[in-house]
């Protein structure tokens, strides 16, 4: 029984390190994710992108909401929104996200 507990803890720690759970919300995969989204936004929209800012979803710790920042003021920023999923092995996928115009928002 103790071996099972130790193995489970070791596996959980390895998965946490891969997605950055043990190092806070700015774990090792986030710089790669933000750089990839910045590059994609520059190519996709042919516009100036200052940087990308990613924030974790509250319910699903493997999902991120990322903004490719186009304009920044001292109190806020705006840009193109992406949704990203980070896997335990450090891989990720992302896609642009927009609210359909027919919803009137």
Q: Would you give an account of this structure?
A:
There is one protein chain. With 105 residues, the chain is α+β, with helices and mostly antiparallel strands. The chain has one domain. Helices cover 33% and strands 30% of the residues. It is built from 2 helices and 4 strands; from the N terminus they run ααββββ. It has a 4-stranded antiparallel β-sheet, with helices on one face. β2 and β3 (77-86) form a beta hairpin. The longest helix is centred in the first third of the chain and has 18 residues, at 2-19. Mean pLDDT is 81; it is low at 18-26.
Brief sketch in words of this structure:
This protein has 105 residues and is an alpha+beta fold.
Number of strands: 4
> How much of the residues is beta strand, in percent?
25-35%
The number of helical segments is 2
What's the story with the biggest beta sheet?
4 strands, antiparallel
Helix content: 25-40%
Order of helices and strands: HHEEEE
Radius of gyration based on Cα positions: 17 Å
Number of domains: 1
The mean pLDDT is 81
N/C terminus separation:
54 Å
Question: Unreliable segments (pLDDT under 50, ≥5 consecutive)?
Answer: 18-26
How do the strands of the widest beta sheet line up side by side? 1-2-3-4
- Give the oligomer, counting copies of the same chain as homo and different chains as hetero: single chain
User: Which structural category do the helix and sheet elements fall into?
Assistant: alpha+beta
What shape does the CA trace take? Answer: globular
């Amino acid at each position: 029984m103790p071996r099972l507990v130790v193995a489970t803890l070791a596996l959980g720690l390895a998965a946490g390190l891969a997605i950055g759970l043990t190092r806070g919300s700015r774990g090792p995969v986030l710089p790669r994710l933000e750089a990839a989204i910045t590059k994609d936004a520059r190519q996709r929209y042919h516009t100036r992108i200052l940087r990308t800012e990613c924030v974790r979803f509250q319910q699903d710790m493997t999902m991120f909401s990322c903004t490719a920042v186009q304009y920044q003021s001292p109190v806020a920023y705006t840009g193109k929104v992406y949704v990203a999923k980070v896997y335990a092995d450090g891989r990720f996928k992302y896609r642009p996200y927009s609210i359909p115009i027919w919803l009137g928002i």
